[in-house]
Amino acid sequence: MMKQTLITTLILAVLCGGAWAQPKVNGNAPIREKRGYNQRVAIDTAHVRVLYALNAKDIKDENTYLDLGKLEVGKRVWKYSSEFVYSSDLKVTEWVREKGYKGNVPKTAFIRGEKSDKWSELVYSDYTIRGKQLEEQACFPLWAERENSSYTEPWPLMQWTLANEQLSILGHRCQKATCRFRGRDFVAWFAADVPIKGGPWKFGGLPGLILKVSDVQNIYVWEAVAIERGTYPIMQYPDKLYPKSTRKSVWQRQKKYNEDYRNAIGWTSLEGRPMPPKVRFEPLEKE
């Protein structure tokens, strides 16, 4: 009997994609097919944008990134979002316009990167900074659209300690800084010769642009791959698509969908039992 139980457990682990083998930075939730791309409005104009590889296996190959994020720097507004998701939404819109198709579009055909068919809050949330306020518009996975919401919190959020070590990134001499933030220890490398006190995700507050940042375990790693200058409209989804909430509530729900998507949306087995065990998910914010 014990042998049979062990075999059953191993089979469930395989069916869950080896859920407990390694910690994951995204769970098993599928991506959203529609995000309201055509409802966005311009809120500012950026003249600088910085592109970041997230968890790149090969920094020279975009197809190995979990995401290609972009920081857009305007006079009044800064925004961090996914360039992969933006370019996918654009291609879907053009495809629909060309074919006159009104049903669901196979969006995964247009998305690049590792695990492009999986939802992650780091990829499907937009982070907008106005002065000393940061807003996250949190887009939840397929069949969880009712959870879409937003919240604001003070920015910058991190208290940094500067170090003397230096590193060259994109031709810029970067200085090391460290901090502890919401349960994780981080190391950042910032370029003092680029007077932008921001970086990827929620990172900011250093005396120069953050070009690389990671937690000390290297579970999450962002590295800048380009600094571009031009004219870029900064777009935002309307507030009505993202009702106001709190950071704690959004964080708890994001964690739930990452760890246990199928049970979170109410799926059960054919026998009416809960679905197999949850993913060993590693949230960026642990508290």
Task: Please give a handful of descriptors for the protein shown.
4 helices; globular; alpha+beta; eleven-stranded antiparallel sheet; 287 residues; disordered N terminus
**What count of helical segments does DSSP give?**
4
Structural class, by secondary structure, is alpha+beta
User: What is the H-and-E element order?
Assistant: HEEEHHEEEEEEEEH
Which sequence of strands runs across the widest sheet?
6-5-4-3-2-1-11-10-9-8-7
Please tell me the overall pLDDT: 85
C-alpha termini separation = 40 Å
Task: Describe the largest sheet.
Answer: 11 strands, antiparallel
> What portion of residues belong to β-strands?
25-35%
- Give the helix proportion (percent range): 10-25%
Low-confidence stretches: 1-22
- Radius of gyration over all CA atoms, rounded: 20 Å
Principal-axes geometry comes out as globular
Count of strand segments: 11
Walk me through this protein's architecture.
By secondary structure, the chain is an alpha+beta fold. 18% of the residues lie in helices and 33% in strands. The protein has 4 helices and 11 strands; from the N terminus they run αβββααββββββββα. Strands 6-5-4-3-2-1-11-10-9-8-7 form an 11-stranded antiparallel beta sheet. A hairpin with a 2-residue loop joins strand 2 (67-74) and strand 3 (77-82). It is globular and about 60 Å long. It starts with a helix and ends in a 23-residue tail after the last helix. The relative contact order is 0.20.
